[in-house]
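Work Package 4 report. The design task specified in the project plan requires that, given a folded chain encoded as structure tokens, an amino acid be chosen for each position. We show below one input record used in the internal validation round.
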């Protein structure tokens, strides 16, 4: 069976499974639509939460990031997983005990203010729409490879499927569908990793293979990769070269507190029957997430090793060291048709040179001694590395199709969770909570579905014109969550004296400062060409990049909230009593 036919079969079967589950679990009430009736088992909820959170950025883009950043990419691993510890210990059980449907609802009630609720909704929408851009790009990349079409057509196809899938069953349908998607996703991620680990090192466990010797040599795989990249003018893979130590620290911190403040993940802990189940869910989430996240470093390193050795199969600088243009493998033809991988024979020698032509010393030497006239892999999108890896390694078609299905499952699962968070914020928090308190349950659900449609159209447009690759865009969303919602949730639970004026001022200060910083370098509202300064270290404030600024925004939020609360009216006693009640530990 051809690769395209196999891909259609595998992905088609998974779609049939998802839609069947969504129809079976369709909702009949707002409680089921928003929080699945609060009846999800903590183990099942942990699996669904893992799928909800492990988005296209985790499945498709993170290993690509690690492949190109090397050791510096560990910031994404540490930040995203560390945030779950914060969420499990500091937020999940208390918010579940409060017993509301959404994060803005908690903020509005805790800070006795509709204004605070509206600002929380605005923060949630900014975070979720930014986050869903990454999912749309992931869907587009996966579909473009599957359908063998340009990414634009792939993304539009993905938008249609996501919309049909998301409007079926609300949180109840999404939860059970995400459990199925997790199974597809983790199987699709680990099976190729095992095959490639065996192929390169003889060790079937990817986590151990990363520290093993390459097959047929006494050289460790990472050492061999370091040597190859250095020979091509790049920095060593294991060096801290992708970002400064300050940025690595701030990015890790930003991703940690951003994870703990993600509204579409927090709401998952409202779906379990008991308060203690919220903590159990977070623990199980970490177990399920760890399976993929401990595999990702091996996948990234092996993807880079396979790609470099495909283009540069012989000795660097040797006449026959580079692959001939007419001998490029079949997998490259598929990706060239998507526009995400482009070769250009600049010196017309019939071969492809891949090297760091930004390294002036190496580039000058390569031109003088070997006649190289620039890097001939002119486009190599980081987001394709995981999806292309099985093809690079020459694995069977069913494995390649399985990875495509896993990438689509990852993007769909998170997109559905984000769309639900967006729709519930508009229908439940704005319409019912602020503007139309007497709206019927049926009207509220209709508004939720309409808002889903608007959100996916906007996210689709931004997915076609993204401010960065998938994981980078998602990192911006985490930074916005860190700067806006995490501080106010923490202060709402652990600072009885924090009043509404402080919370409102803190959220606005954190959100606005972080958004402005991002827009200055990424373009206003992510519109290409509208950035005021180049997005490079020479122009960043104190060398802090846009993905790391969320931690600074969180600090601004905390500081402004504290100062404003000190000079304004105190918190009412009944609110202090409510906070005290939320914080009392209970076994139930």
């Amino acid at each position: 069976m051809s690769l395209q036919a196999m891909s259609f079969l595998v992905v088609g079967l998974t779609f049939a499974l998802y839609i069947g589950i969504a129809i079976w679990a369709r909702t009949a009430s707002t409680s089921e639509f928003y929080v699945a009736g609060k009846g999800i088992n903590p183990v099942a909820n942990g699996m669904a939460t893992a799928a909800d959170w492990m988005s296209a950025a985790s499945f498709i883009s993170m290993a690509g990031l690690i492949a190109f950043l090397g050791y510096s990419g560990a910031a994404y691993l540490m930040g995203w997983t560390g945030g779950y510890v914060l969420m499990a210990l500091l937020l999940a059980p208390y918010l579940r005990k409060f017993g509301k449907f959404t994060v803005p609802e908690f903020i509005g009630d805790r800070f006795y203010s509709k204004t605070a609720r509206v600002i929380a909704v605005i923060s949630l929408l900014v975070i979720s729409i930014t986050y869903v851009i990454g999912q749309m790009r992931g869907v587009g990349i996966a579909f473009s490879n599957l359908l063998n079409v340009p990414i634009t057509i792939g993304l539009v196809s993905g938008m249609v499927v996501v919309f049909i899938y998301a409007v079926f069953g609300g949180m109840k349908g999404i939860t059970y569908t995400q459990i199925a998607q997790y199974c597809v996703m983790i199987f699709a991620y680990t099976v190729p990793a095992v095959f490639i680990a065996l192929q390169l090192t003889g060790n079937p466990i990817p986590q151990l293979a990363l520290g093993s010797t390459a097959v047929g040599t006494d050289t460790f795989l990472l050492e061999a990769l370091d040597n190859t990249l250095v020979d091509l003018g790049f920095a060593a893979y294991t060096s801290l070269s992708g970002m400064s130590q300050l940025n690595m620290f701030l990015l890790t911190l930003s991703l940690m507190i951003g994870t703990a403040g993600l509204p579409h993940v927090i709401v998952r802990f409202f779906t379990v029957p008991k308060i203690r189940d919220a903590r159990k869910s977070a623990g199980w989430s970490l177990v399920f997430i760890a399976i993929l996240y401990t595999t990702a470093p091996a996948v990234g390193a092996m993807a880079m090793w396979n790609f470099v050795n495909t283009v540069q199969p012989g000795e660097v600088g040797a006449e026959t060291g580079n692959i001939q243009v007419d001998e490029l493998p079949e997998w490259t033809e598929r990706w060239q048709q998507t526009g995400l991988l482009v070769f250009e024979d600049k010196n017309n020698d019939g071969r492809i040179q891949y090297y760091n032509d930004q390294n002036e010393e190496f580039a000058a030497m390569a031109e003088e001694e070997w006649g190289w006239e620039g890097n001939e892999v002119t486009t190599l999108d980081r987001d394709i590395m995981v999806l292309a890896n099985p093809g690079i390694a020459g694995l069977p078609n069913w494995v390649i199709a399985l990875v495509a299905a896993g990438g689509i499952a990852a993007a769909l699962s998170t997109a559905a969770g984000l769309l639900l968070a967006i729709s519930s914020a508009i229908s439940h928090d704005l319409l019912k909570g602020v503007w139309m308190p007497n709206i019927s349950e049926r009207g509220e659900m209709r508004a939720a579905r309409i808002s889903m449609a608007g959100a996916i159209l906007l996210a689709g447009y931004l997915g076609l014109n993204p401010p960065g690759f998938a994981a980078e865009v998602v990192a911006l969303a985490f930074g916005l969550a860190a700067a806006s919602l995490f501080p106010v949730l923490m202060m709402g639970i652990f600072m009885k004296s924090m009043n509404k004026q402080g919370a409102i001022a803190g959220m606005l200060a954190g959100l606005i400062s972080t958004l402005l910083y991002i827009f200055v370098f990424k373009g206003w509202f992510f519109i290409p060409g509208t950035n005021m300064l180049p997005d490079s270290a020479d122009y960043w404030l104190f060398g802090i990049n846009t993905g790391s600024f969320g931690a600074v925004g969180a600090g601004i939020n905390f500081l402004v909230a504290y100062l404003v609360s000190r000079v304004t009216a105190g918190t009412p006693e009944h609110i202090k009593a409510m906070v005290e009640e939320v914080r009392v530990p209970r076994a139930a």
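The chain has one domain: 3-305+391-583. Validation will be extended to a larger panel in the next phase.
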